[in-house]
Amino acid sequence: MTNIAKGLEGVLFTESKLTFINGSEGILTHLGIPIQEWAEKSTFEELSLALLDGKLPTAAELAHFDAELRANRAVPQQLIDVIQNMPRGVHPMQALRTAVSYLGLLDPQAEEVTPEARRAIATRMIAQFSTIIAAINRAQEGQEIVAPRADLTHAGNYLYMLSGKEPTAEQARLFDIALVLHADHGMNASTFTAIATSSTLSDMYSCITSAIGALKGPLHGGANEAVMDMLDEVGNPEQAEAYITKKLDNKEKIMGVGHRVYKYFDPRSRVLRDYAEVVANKQGKSNYYQILETIEKVVVDRIGSKGIYPNVDFYSGTVYSDLGIRKEYFTPIFALARISGWCASVIEYSRDNRLLRPDAVYSGATDAHYVDIQDRQ
Fold first, then answer.
1. What's the domain count of the chain?
2. Which position among 259, 301, 359, 369 bears the catalytic label?
3. CB 190 within 8 A of CB 211
4. How far apart are CA 319 and CA 256, in angstroms?
5. CB pairs under 8 A, 24+ apart, for 147-151?
6. What pLDDT, on the 0 to 100 scale, is given for residue 283?
7. GO molecular function of the protein, one example (predicted)?
């Protein structure tokens, strides 16, 4: 009997030096360095460059890359016009997908598929994603689009473009850490989709547009938004234990809990939990955190032995919410971080490219014949 790997689980199709995950022990590393160290000591700019080049950069290399990002933050006015003319109420990921595809039309280098060209395009896209997403958000709310500033960090600039107000250093750093935690995560669905598109020697913008389409799905990128819906449904900490106990008794899915890879705590969730607690205590918004804390305790006690624990989405929504980001934009923020991993994986795979062509076990009829339409029942 032929074994079918549903969801491609356990199927190996390539090698990568970028990200390592040991789900049973809750380990995540980039270039061999634990994610906790990246979050504590690095920045999104540095991790992006490290992923693109496959090594820790020197101070001079990082300064040059940072300058490139700052110089490329602005997007063409034609794209701003497209964003402003998008229908109100569209899904933000639809808007992002369309905007990135249109951006490719405006890039004279778009059709070049060499690793060098992909690397140059990647730098521009990493810089421009934040501008595009902030512009979509403000345009959809009927607000004037805020132009990027070159004197702010990547994370700080996004928060500025979102609100029109310069964030505090603490807010910028918190958002920077969130971007670091989401920058790459191995061969997830969207990264695999980007690589599959790249394997045909399609252009970089098509690769990233494909990835955005995959991330849009609620089973991949939308879980943190669903967590916030759950928190609003619970209402207050006093009801959290009864709420989650009922969910578990009825064997209902709990958003932000469980992961295809991790059978222990997602290490990213541990980092975000600590920051979510700090923010909640400082801003007096402890209700959400207390609800999550209660839910986590009940979940770990009840089903932790089955390898089901909170994942990165469990706490990320509360962090984003405290930064003034609407829950409809949690998944675009995911893309804002993951653009680095998508681009790095596409570039890495393209250096030893092979067209992806999986197969399926045929389970249909084998001896059928054509029946004229007038004779069909």
1. 2
2. 259
3. yes
4. 14
5. 147/74, 148/73, 148/74, 150/70, 150/71, 150/73
6. 64
7. citrate synthase activity
Residue 199 lies in a domain: yes
pLDDT level of residue 262 (50, 70, 90 thresholds): confident
Residues 230, 198 share a domain: no
Lowest mean pLDDT among 126-130, 148-152, 321-325: 321-325
What is the strand order of the sheet 27-30 is part of?
A: 19-22, 27-30, 33-34
Is 91 assigned a catalytic role?
Answer: no
**CA distance linking residue 151 with residue 318, whole number of Å:** 28
Q: Which residues in the chain belong to E strands, given as ranges?
A: 19-22, 27-30, 33-34
Co-location of 191 and 338 in the same domain: yes
**Residue of 11, 9, 97 whose CA lies nearest to 356:** 11
Q: For the chain, give the longest Cα–Cα distance.
A: 76
Amino acid at 97: R
Annotated catalytic residue, options 203, 266, 313, 322: 313
Q: Are residues 235 and 208 in the same domain?
A: no
Phi, psi dihedrals of residue 369, rounded to the nearest 5°: -135, 155
Find residue 257's DSSP bridge partners.
310
Q: Do 122 and 142 belong together in one domain?
A: yes
Q: Is 369 part of a structural domain of the chain?
A: no
Q: What is the pLDDT of residues 157-208, one digit of tens each?
A: 999 999 999 999 999 999 999 999 999 999 999 999 999 999 999 999 999 9
Domain contains 376: no
372 is catalytic: no
83 CB-near residues (< 8 Å, 6+ apart):
95, 99, 132, 135, 136, 139, 145
Q: Which CATH number is 249's domain given?
A: 1.10.230.10
Question: Based on the domain organization, do 259 and 125 belong to the same domain?
Answer: no
Amino acid letter at 12? L
Q: CA 12 to CA 363: how far, in whole Å?
A: 24
Distance CA 350, CA 204 (A): 11
**Which residues 6+ apart lie within 8 Å of 51 measured at CB?**
18, 30, 31, 183, 184, 340, 341, 343, 344
Lookup: tokens for 147: 């132009």
Which pTM was predicted? 0.92
**Which amino acid type is present at position 311?**
N
Domain hosting residue 35, numbered range: 14-218+326-350
pLDDT of 223 reads: 74
